[in-house]
Amino acid sequence: MTTDKSAPAGGSIMVVGGGISGLTTALEAAEVGYEVLLIEKEPSLGGRVSQLKQYFPKLCPPTCGLEINYKRVKDNPRIKVITMAEVEKVEGNAGNYTVEVKISPRYVNENCTACGECAKVCESEISNEFNFGMDRRKAAYLPHNMAFPMRYVMAPSMGADDREKCKEACKYDAIDFDMQEKTLDFKVGAIVWATGWKPYDAARIDNLGFGRYQNIITNMMLERMASLNGPTQGKILRPSDDKAPETIAFAQCAGSRDENHLPYCSYICCMASLKHATYLREQYPDAKIYIYYIDLRTPGRKYENFYSNLKKDENVFFIKGKVAEVGEESGTGNVTLVAEDTLSGEKIRQTVDMLVLATGMQPNASVDKPNADLKYNADGFIVNDFKKGGMFAAGCANKPADVVTSNQNATGMALKAIQTLVRR
């Protein structure tokens, strides 16, 4: 590891996290004249939105929102982006922070044109975490088709033979395996934590069978399947046999509103499952879809209309009841489930081709807490202390939220960061 204690400040506001909230915060602050340093731990910006097929309220593809933001970032000299970087430590107080940032090597420099010749010759593969491990990718890879920066990454696990092949295949001298991890110190006046969320680990929900039965997937896995750049090129298929599913059940609040897992409502899960039902209806007009729920949360007129239209579909069934247990039918791979219909009081036993668990959002900061003077609520979300100022949480680092709410919140946090600087 190398340490550079004389690193340039790089801006008066640091934004940690390059998802939709972090991008919005950085752009709002930079476009009114402030210097911004945008830190992202992954090789590319975009966060969870980049993994979606479509997002509300207009059911836009990720390209719709991300491409214009990437262009704004690229065209704005006040924004400095550092990817594969993580905040190690924050010292100081509002208006005067020293932030220690660890930067991992990409092994690819700015000469990269994303031509892909390195991937063609690379023989080793790694799990594709962008697709939640549903497929594999080359150890020389582009994070995804909308990556920003549009540069390849060489996995640290790549063997010596593949390293040599990749270097020889690159016509632009872009591959550098001598890159080292380094640590830089930055002086900033305010910090916005836009560290986002991760899907709750469904394997921890013992009674719902994820990981034991192949045809049980999560809502984000279904989102990746439905995406054209996903593991199945946009086709939603049953994992065990690549069969087109004819019956699909959704288990809402999988791990949410549960004191043993996530005690809160994650806000987005109901609308996500309603959206996923439309994906399935487009691909399989005759498929039967069953949505098991405790309560359906469809806040606002647009979301309520979306729900109302879906209720008119004769092949979509809503059952007010929580899935209590699941199993697997011998020989078929079909999923059996048991739930109680709370409206009729009857116990339901059903067999479906595939079960989708609507897992909730867990704030990344609750799992990997930043080494900084921050307050958290009981659920692990960062609490904004506006009286103290200096550091603020935006988007899903602060509370469960959809894209629209996250962007609104991020704009507000950009203003709060600016106010910190103005008052000093």
- Structural domain tally: 3
Instruction: State the CATH class of the largest domain.
Output: Alpha Beta
Note the total helix count.
Answer: 9
Strand content: 25-35%
Biggest sheet character:
5 strands, parallel
What coarse outline follows from CA principal-axis ratios? globular
Mean pLDDT: 95
What's the β-strand tally?
25
Secondary structure category: alpha/beta
Helix content: 10-25%
Strand order of the largest sheet: 4-3-2-12-25
Low-confidence stretches: 1-10
CATH architecture descriptor text of the largest domain = 3-Layer(bba) Sandwich
Q: Report the radius of gyration as a whole number of Å.
A: 23 Å
Describe the protein.
- One of its GO terms (molecular function) is metal ion binding.
- This protein has nine helices and 25 strands.
- The protein has 424 residues and is α/β, with parallel strands linked by helices.
- The chain has three domains: 182 residues, FAD/NAD(P)-binding domain; 59 residues, no CATH class; 159 residues, FAD/NAD(P)-binding domain, CATH 3.50.50.60.
- The longest helix has 21 residues.
- The protein is globular.
- The N terminus is likely disordered.
